[in-house]
């Protein structure tokens, strides 16, 4: 397996443009962060998520990179959705007692403006905390402070 991966990496390096190499470096840097346990999941590492959590809110910021863009050269809506879902889910899981977890049941997103700039910052707050579900709202902002999306999520509370 390692030999095949080395060959694949070498082929990619040899046949890549500067933009391709920049994207490959971004992905490998994120992957390395997961390996070094700086991030708990591959998606956290690859998106280079920086998380701040407390009893009321969660904020996640990611740097924007060309690899995250759609064909219009703006942040792909699916990446925005992923970071919003992760921000809201992180808050839900943070608030649960040991032995329980939260999983997304429903996610609604309203896109407002294009994701451009240096970073996006997502912030989540609790709307309702029940015994079986939680409802959480989230907002995504680009680096100039403009809101790019508003979301709500419902999360099932489950035993681990």
Shape: globular
Uncertain stretches? none
- Kindly report how far apart the N and C termini lie: 33 Å
Number of helices, counting only DSSP H or I runs of 4 residues or more: 4
Mean pLDDT: 94
Strand content: 35-45%
Overall domain count = 2
Q: What radius of gyration results from the CA coordinates? A: 17 Å
The CATH first-level class of the largest domain comes to: Alpha Beta
Structural class by secondary-structure content: alpha+beta
What series of H and E elements makes up the topology? HHHEEHEEEE
Characterize the largest beta sheet: strand count, sense, and whether it forms a barrel.
6 strands, antiparallel
User: Largest beta sheet: what is the strand line-up?
Assistant: 1-2-4-5-6-3
Could you say what the CATH topology of the largest domain is called?
Thiol Ester Dehydrase, Chain A
Strand tally is: 6
Helical content class: 25-40%
Name the CATH superfamily classification of the largest domain.
Hotdog Thioesterase
Assigned CATH architecture of the largest domain:
Roll
